[in-house]
């Protein structure tokens, strides 16, 4: 009898963990099944997420008239995500953004990574976390937990790394993303989500008329291959000053700014003003036409604000929309790019016995 109760207890725990079964979303070429989960709240907001790359495929949220539309770029099918994507909605890892020349030294040992982007490492390498099928740990109506074990030396990074992450949709239209990781050898780690937001709804316009505000008075200046020079430069008096809201398109082509020329627009990490390690609101995006507003909060030291400068129109996304330059914007909360080679930047080293823990939230409202 006792065992019977125990069995029922574990079964009910498991059923609770999987109270959202999701829907089959196809298979990878290796035959792994992918499932798409819909998180929903009572306000009519929905977030669709798959366990391939932990990709956020859709975020449906109302405009000021209550019209619910999609505010992220992406595709209708898994096959399109597998074939060619600029990281639409994906988790990037083991290391988000660039590492100079695909090399870093840790505890006196040099590690070599894929240098697939202009001779630089980008977003975890050739088969980063964005291209892995993650294990579904738990799925309910409003949350999804995924895990992935990255083997020692996968993509050149040391240590067996265990990552767990959870997406949670709240009743006040906030999508929370939390990550936890441990390693059995010292390694470097910089996880982020690479959603391209477009608050116009169903990507019907580019993002140039949208207003952005970032709580950062310094920019992580880059060189011509978008690797940090090591300098944090004041944004005051430059097109990078978003301490007050600014229309994205206003200064994006201001070629009197060397950093604008180097980035081809905005493709930089802002060094956030909030105290190190604290969790705070750090940025907002507002679309004056639809009224949709997004507020970003994080405990990370930086945010990569990327305006889709490399989107060149060769991809067609959901709703049959051709994805052209500046059709979406990313606010990737993270540590500064190239931190493993920059002794003055906050450290991205994770050692055995330590727990990497971080959270970010995107909250949607209207104004
Ligand atoms: C990078 C861009 C890159 C994009 C897609 C962003 O995080 O900063 O330079 O093109 O990701 O890979």
From TrEMBL:
Pathway named in the protein's UniProt entry: Carbohydrate metabolism; hexose metabolism
Top-rank EC class of the record's enzyme: isomerase
Cofactor: Ca(2+)
Biological process per Gene Ontology, one example term: glucose metabolic process
Superkingdom of origin organism: Bacteria
UniProt keyword annotations, A-Z: Calcium, Carbohydrate metabolism, Cytoplasm, Isomerase, Phosphoprotein, Signal
EC numbers for this chain: 5.1.3.3
Single GO MF descriptor: carbohydrate binding
Active-site residue numbers: 194 (proton donor), 332 (proton acceptor)
Protein localization: Cytoplasm
Annotated residues for binding of beta-D-galactose: 97-98, 194-196, 267
The family this protein is said to belong to: Belongs to the aldose epimerase family.
Record's protein name: Aldose 1-epimerase
